[in-house]
Specification:
This protein is of the alpha+beta class. About 35% of the residues lie in helices and about 15% in strands. The structure holds adenosine-5'-triphosphate and magnesium ion (MG).
Length: about 300
């Protein structure tokens, strides 16, 4: 196992200039992992030097009107935090620049749950499946969450053993099952792609704990070589709390289209996702799957018209 020093080399470089306070002066190194159109994702530690964390920063967009930019940044940070707090059932730490999840309009502290699925519906339903929120500051546009070990499903499928179709089917079924749980909890993701689903090594109940208190992990998921492992969902910046069949069907459609274009060779197996989704959603799943057919039809008409 890599030592924590290997994982987090002592910082000799100044922190990147894009980091907001307090991270721009923090002794914890921030290593850039991914740069999307809207955000920068760093691996760092939070509160203690041994707690690995993902820091997502949404830098100011100079080309947008400043008022609109602030509003969009605040909306995305809060949407992500609210949904993660609701789904993980865990509160967040206020401190180190972080804040509690408040409704900025009402100035009231907001409990998880709330809008959409009814008070308390789905709270904690995806504990361990989504990262817990550790802190945030919507004015400065950042959120820190639990670090998820492993790789994205996109990477895992690219690196898969082509001969092992059963493993891929199993993975697709696990994804469908988790999306069903998400929808049942009253949340639609808004940006389901194989880059926003992660595969992390399974920690078995028989896993051992080292002297440093770290869990020894088993299973081959997450090392890029296999498709075993637990599913985790990330990137909830476009998530909404909704129990509408239409929203749920569109969520599935987005995943279906993204899957087909990212993994054209595997496209024919997407039915596994939908079958497992139907099982995990129960009665309501059938209605959503029927609705998905309408959404597909509209999608086809739209692309024919251009
Ligand atoms: N909690 C996490 N633990 C480990 N890695 C993460 C975590 N969150 C994100 N990542 C990694 O960073 C990448 C980018 O993160 P994310 O998808 O949240 O950002 P994004 O696509 O740029 O976001 P947005 O579309 O909201 O601008 C992910 O594909 C994943 O590899
Ligand atoms: Mg993403």
């Amino acid at each position: 196992m890599a030592s924590s020093q290997e994982d987090h080399p002592l910082q000799t470089q100044p922190q990147p200039r894009t980091l907001p306070p307090p991270f721009n002066t923090s002794p914890a190194p921030c290593v850039l992992i991914a740069q999307g159109a809207e955000s920068l994702l760093y691996r760092t530690t939070f509160l203690t030097p041994t707690q690995p964390a993902a820091l997502k920063v949404r830098p100011e967009k100079k080309w947008r009107h400043p008022t609109l930019d602030k509003r969009l940044t605040r909306q995305r940070v809060l949407a992500e935090a609210r949904v993660l707090v609701k789904l993980s059932g865990e509160g967040i730490v206020a401190g180190g620049g972080g804040r509690k999840v408040k409704d900025p309009k009402k100035g009231k502290e907001k409990e998880s749950g709330g809008d959409g699925g009814g008070e308390g519906v789905g709270v904690g339903a995806l504990r361990g499946v989504v990262p817990a929120v550790l802190g945030l500051d919507w004015e400065r546009g950042w959120i820190v969450m639990e670090w998820i070990e492993g790789v994205t499903v996109k990477q895992a499928i690219y690196a898969r053993d082509l001969a092992d179709e059963a493993a891929l089917k199993g993975l697709l079924r696990r994804i469908g099952g988790v999306v069903g749980l998400l929808h049942k909890a009253g949340v639609v993701h808004g940006d389901l792609t194989t880059s926003n689903v992660m595969l992390r090594p399974t920690v078995s109940s028989s896993s051992t704990t080292t002297e440093e208190g770290e869990k020894t992990k088993v299973g081959d998921g997450g090392d890029g070589a296999g498709l075993d492992g637990d599913i985790a969902l990330i990137d909830f910046g476009l998530a909404t709390q909704s129990i509408s069949d239409e929203d749920r069907a569109v969520d599935l459609y987005v995943l279906e289209r993204a899957f087909g274009s990212t993994h054209p060779k595997e496209e024919g197996l997407f039915g596994e996702v939908l079958e497992a989704y139907g099982e995990s959603m129960g009665k309501g799943g059938k209605v959503v799957l029927r609705r998905l057919e309408d959404v597909r039809m509209r999608g086809r008409k739209k692309s024919m018209i251009g």
